[in-house]
Amino acid sequence: MKITQSLHAALVISNIEKSEQFYSKVLGLEKIDRELKFPGIWYQIGDFQLHLILAATIIPDAIDSQKLGRNRHLAFSVANLEEAKQQLRASNCPVQMSASGRSALFTQDPDGNIIELSE
User: Fold this and answer.
1) Phi/psi of residue 24, each to 5°?
2) Distance of alpha carbon 101 from the chain centroid
3) Which of 115, 118, 119 lies closest to 107, judged by CA?
4) Helices (H), the chain
5) In a 3-state reduction of DSSP, which class is residue 118?
6) 41 inside domain
7) Which of 46, 67, 97, 115 has the smallest set of CB atoms within 10 Å of its CB?
8) Which of 95, 89, 88 is nearest to 23 (CA)?
9) What are the start-end ranges of the E strands in the chain?
10) Residue 15 domain-assigned?
11) Domains in the chain: how many in total?
12) Within a domain: 106
C-alpha cells in the first residue's frame, strides 16, 4: 500500500452555529457545499477538507490540559502566527503557545477539539 494524499479529517461537533462561527469567522476557513443527509459543515483548505459532523453527544478526550499539543489535534499552517493569536484572543478563544519553543500555538473549538496553528 502507498498512501498518496490526505483527503479529509472529520471532527464531531455539538452546535452547527457555534462551530460555523469559530471555523468560518475566527479561523477564516472556506465553507463548501455538501449534499449529504446528515447535518454538518465541510471546509476546503487547499487540497484538504475538514468535515464537521453534528453529534448528539461529545465525549471530551483531552488527556493533558496543561500541554494541549500532547492531545489529539489538527494542525494548520498560518501566514502570520502573531496575527492568528490576536484574532483568537479578540474572539475569546483559548491560546496556548507551544511548549517546545516552536512558532506554534494551540486553541480549542467550542467543543474542545484542539487546533494547532504553526507559522
Assistant:
1) -85, -50
2) 21
3) 115
4) 16-20, 81-90
5) strand
6) yes
7) 46
8) 88
9) 8-13, 30-32, 40-45, 48-54, 73-77, 96-97, 104-108, 114-118
10) yes
11) 1
12) yes
